[in-house]
Design a protein that fits this description.
Blueprint lengths: L1 E6 H9 L6 H10 L3 H4 L15 H8 L9 H13 L2 H16 L10 E8 L10 E4 L5 E6 L14 H14 L11 H19 L6 H4 L3 H13 L6 H9 L1 H6 L16 H17 L3 H4 L4 H8 L12
Parallel strand pairs: 1-2, 2-4
Antiparallel strand pairs: 3-4
Helix pairs in contact: 1-2, 1-5, 6-7, 7-8, 8-13, 8-15, 13-15
Amino acid sequence: MEIIEVNLLEALRGVLTSPAEAQPERFREQVMEPLRPVWEPIRRYMPPGADGADPALAVARTLKLYRPELDAESGLGALDTLAAADVFGQNRAALEQAVQALNPGQNGISLQEVHLVLTLAEPGGLGEDGYTGAGNTPGWVMLSVWPQALPDGADNFCRLPAITAHEFNHNVRFAQPDWTFPMTLGAYLVAEGLAECFAAELHGEASLGSWTTTLREPELRALAPRYGAALLEQDFGLVRGYIFGDAVMENFGGLSGKQAKLGIPPYAGYALGYHVVRDYLARTGRSAAQATYDPWRVIVAGSGWFTVTDGGQER
């Protein structure tokens, strides 16, 4: 499998050091155009008219990417920090490790190439963690970070290798028949749980973000019956609501007048999915890498979190 490097940090540096009047167009050409395969599909989930006359810039704002309209000096300082830490090199190595661990070719998954993308995020745009990733586009692993210290004092960009593992796991999982549209909540829940368990398997549980670790098991046990009753739900708006929670959906424009709030805490689907898959692994002795190729219904049934009726409907 070929790894194609798309290090947009240096592209952004070129944008921020160019004359002010040239920056918007250079940003579109040098940062957003290489990312088009990732952001073009996102437009369909944006509120009507949200992308206006400049879709690339509108999506950049939605994704909280660093843009020319922000302070150039601060952006250049952040780019220096990431370059000095060789963040791109560290995550290329993490991607190579993930490829070796999952060995998709030997498991019937044909991935000829994978693009590794690193972008600078808008300061404060990605919450308290300051970093995120995306692996929903086949053949693409995108990372985004604004360098900052985490509550435990660690640099947040040191957690990115776990994100790289998580997102590449998605690439492999989403290439399987288990992941089809319209997808079920159960398939999505297990996909996020597998990705987090795989990241923990390679980089340790301490590498996981707050989206997985904030909610504790008693809170998740209380939520589990609601998820169990909705595991076969296929309305993508509702499915996303169960995964991301009300506040996140509202922040990114995912709640509309047709969709009432579900009363789901932020990122509850990530946390619950992680516990479901973790318990499945503990009960079966399988690794997260091995379980990446198991059907979601098998994982749900073997996790102990839900009861499966004789009719096959998870409850």
